[in-house]
Design a protein that fits this description.
alpha/beta; 12 helices; disordered N terminus
């Protein structure tokens, strides 16, 4: 695919690109790759991977039989997908049942339940989930790996939403609006929003001279700086203004996913998946953020939460399918998480048809190489009385009785310490700059 075709397709999904202008050829990054999938708004693990008996305060929607609603070590909430979840019957095929998801991915899946998020605030929650710490400007894990492994690559860290903090370690490539991308990608175009209008402000040769002059001026400004923050910012601006020629290496599909309009949020996630996998294939990206919102179900919980979870599972499944088709799944680690959980029980709204914020959540991990993440295991849990996290043995991760002070309650910090070990970046300069407190638990071994 040529550069212009790539730009036209990428513009449809809102890819805003930052790429360095350099004649030096970069060695393609060969993996592992990291996909961070955020269920934005606060999902309900009791409706997914941490089911509870019907009739208690947490579940009035589905029957849970521990002997039946189980695949391998994983229990799941066997929630029927009612036809009224969508208005277009064609949309039902893009919703995925929990049982189907766990049956399909059981051998490549790791589930961690009973994660103490230590917050029920949205902003702090997403920061904690994706960086391991709720304050201090810590980077998203994928950004941390990208800054360690391939900081000069043009699409090292791609974000389509969610927490995309980088700790100023490297630029972030944001998946933004169509218009803003076209303005960034083709600044010489008179009307980038109109693909039929190819007129330019100046001839191509003149525009190249303008860009060269801008580069020289910015480089001179950067070289004259003595304050590290200003010099670093100037360097990132230099990258952001860089050449897009390297993006011609990205072999995107000629068509993008097109599904019923009422699933536009899932369609966008799937299109961004197409871009992310193509960037991985080209060796230009290390990690990517994907996001599906709509989980803040203070009302209408039993309909909205179910629909969004069914979309999310289909979106995760699509990432796996695309990665498998590209021959990359064995080199990919997928993390799925949310701001926090929901509960305890139902709230008092309309009457009691929603669930509020709850600082206990879960996380799921997938990889085409089961040994990479220690797949096929369930770690942690919550009790059935108060929906509180159960302690685990720090050596074996066996679940202990509530209040057992010999155990450890898993936090997002524990997960990120283990992720850093998994990625082999714990001793790297970026990780040392953003240290996390706590002990390393054998979550992935």
């Amino acid at each position: 695919m040529d550069r212009r075709s790539f730009l036209q397709i990428a513009a449809m999904t809102g890819l805003a690109v930052a790429a360095p202008r350099s004649a030096r050829a970069l060695t393609p990054y060969a993996g592992p790759f990291y996909v961070m999938i955020s269920a934005r708004g606060g999902w309900d693990p009791t409706y997914l991977c941490d089911p509870k008996p019907k009739g208690g305060p947490f579940n009035r929607l589905y029957d849970f039989d521990p002997a039946i609603d189980k695949v391998g070590p994983f229990h799941f909430a066997d929630i029927p997908l009612a036809a009224n979840l969508v208005t277009d019957p064609m949309a039902m095929q893009y919703l995925m049942k929990t049982g189907d998801f766990f049956s399909k991915h059981v051998n490549n899946l790791l589930v961690v339940n009973g994660v103490n998020m230590q917050t029920n605030n949205h902003d702090r929650g997403v920061t904690t989930t994706w960086s391991g710490r709720g304050d201090g400007g810590y980077p998203n894990f994928a950004a941390l790996v990208a800054a360690t492994r391939a900081p000069a690559h043009p699409l090292a860290f791609i974000s389509s939403g969610g927490y995309d903090g980088t700790g100023n370690l490297l630029p972030v490539t944001r998946l933004n609006s169509v218009t803003s991308f076209r303005k960034l990608a083709e600044p010489n175009r008179v009307n980038p929003a109109d693909p039929m209008n190819q007129s330019t402000y100046v001839p191509a040769a003149t525009f190249d001279r303008i860009r060269a002059a801008q580069d020289a001026r910015l480089k001179a400004y950067k070289d004259a700086q003595h304050l590290p923050r200003i010099a670093d910012s100037a360097g990132q601006l230099y990258v952001a203004r860089g050449n897009l020629d390297s993006l011609s290496q990205v072999a995107l599909p000629d068509t993008l996913v097109d599904i019923p309009n009422e699933l536009s949020d899932l369609e966008r996630m799937m299109q961004q998946t197409q871009l992310a996998i193509a960037a991985f294939q080209a060796g230009l990206a290390v990690g990517v953020n994907l996001e599906l919102g709509g989980f803040d179900t203070h009302a209408n919980h039993d309909t909205t939460q179910v629909r969004q979870l069914a979309k999310l599972l289909k979106g995760i499944d699509y990432v796996v399918e695309q990665a498998t088709a590209a021959g990359l799944y064995g080199d990919i680690v997928i993390m799925v998480g949310s701001d926090f959980g929901r509960g305890k029980g139902y709230n008092g709204v309309n009457p009691g048809d929603g669930k509020d914020h709850w600082p206990v959540s879960s996380a799921m991990f997938l990889s085409g190489d089961p040994s990479l993440i220690g797949a096929g295991r369930l770690v942690g849990g919550t009790d059935e009385v108060d929906q509180l996290p159960l302690p685990v043995d720090p050596d074996t991760l066996d679940t202990l009785e509530p209040g057992d002070d010999t155990g450890v309650v898993i936090t997002a910090g524990h997960i990120h310490l283990a992720l850093r070990e998994l990625a082999g970046i714990s001793e790297g300069a970026p990780a040392q700059k953003f240290k996390l407190a706590g002990e390393i638990l054998p979550i992935f071994t």
